[in-house]
Write a structure and sequence with these properties.
Helix content: 25-40%
Number of strands: 10
Number of helices: 7
Largest sheet: 5 strands, antiparallel
Length: 280
């Protein structure tokens, strides 16, 4: 607030408005519960544009009593509005109408007379008589529906005749001749599929090797492996060629290996051609 009394604006405080030098503006109030200061928030027009203004009035200023009263009235009105809205909100949340419920119209109820048989059936004292009456009615209905029985004819006596024995003809027995089963000769090739393919050729390549520029392929009988051995560190192209041929590295034997078979021997021959193209 300005200390100069001549230039100090004149304020009039109301619960929702502030009048400054004769011009009224909408305002809201806030009370600091610790210090007791009152803050007013209003928007004024300055050079045709809205400007937000915050006023702070302390207890030592002359306008404090008026602004405190306006702030308290505004707070009481706001609390009263909240209390009025709470019952309506609770009713809506519970699925009820906030308005007072209208008394329901009384609908007349017509009581139908009960069947005498049903009443008798539910009374223990007349239960036996009720079921006896029902059985008699059912028997009368069945008797009315059944046709009259025709007179039965007298039974006729029939003499039983003894069965005559049938003549039995003796069948001639035929002599059963013995059947001789001759042994069927089975070819040796049909019993053993390996022998049908013929004798297995010898691995005459065992112990031999195929050598090139810095590499060799050894058909090792002691290790029973087809081994690819490099004298130094192989190039990347050589490694790709060996792995593509299906040889795998063994840290124990320090070589790329396959089993010592005819299939590995054919793979080694093809690998030798590729290594000569890569390494020489």
């Amino acid at each position: 607030m300005a200390n100069n009394e001549n230039s100090k604006p004149m304020y009039t405080f109301a619960p929702h408005t502030i009048t400054c030098n004769g011009q009224e503006f909408p305002a809201e109030y806030s009370i600091n519960p610790t210090s007791g200061h009152v803050y007013a928030f209003l928007t004024i027009q300055e050079r045709g544009k809205p400007v937000s203004v915050k006023l702070k009035v302390t207890q030592s200023e002359a306008e404090y009593a008026a602004i405190l009263q306006a702030a308290q009235q505004e707070r009481e009105e706001r609390n009263a509005g909240k209390q009025a809205k709470e019952p309506a909100a609770e009713a809506v949340a519970a699925g009820q109408e906030p308005e007072a419920a209208q008394p329901e119209a009384v609908v007349p109820v017509t009581v139908l007379a009960k069947d005498p048989d049903t009443v008798a059936k539910k009374q223990p004292a007349a239960l036996a008589a009720y079921w006896e009456k029902r059985r008699a009615q059912k028997a009368a209905q069945q008797a009315a529906q059944e046709p009259e029985a025709e007179p039965t004819a007298e039974p006729v006596a029939v003499q039983a005749q003894e069965p005559k024995p049938m003549p039995v003809q003796a069948k001639e027995s035929k002599a059963v001749e013995p059947v001789t089963v001759e042994p069927v000769a089975v070819a040796q090739d049909e019993r053993d599929p390996k022998q049908a393919r013929g004798p297995v050729p010898d691995k005459n390549f065992v112990g031999k090797e195929i050598a090139g520029n810095g590499w060799k392929i050894l058909f090792d009988a002691a290790q029973e492996r087809t081994r690819v051995i490099f004298e130094g560190e192989p190039t990347k192209a050589a490694l790709v060629t060996v792995e593509k041929a299906g040889f795998y590295w063994s840290t124990v034997m320090q070589s790329f290996n396959k089993k010592l078979t005819f299939k590995a021997y054919r793979a080694a021959q093809a690998l030798a051609l590729d290594l000569r193209a890569v390494c020489g």
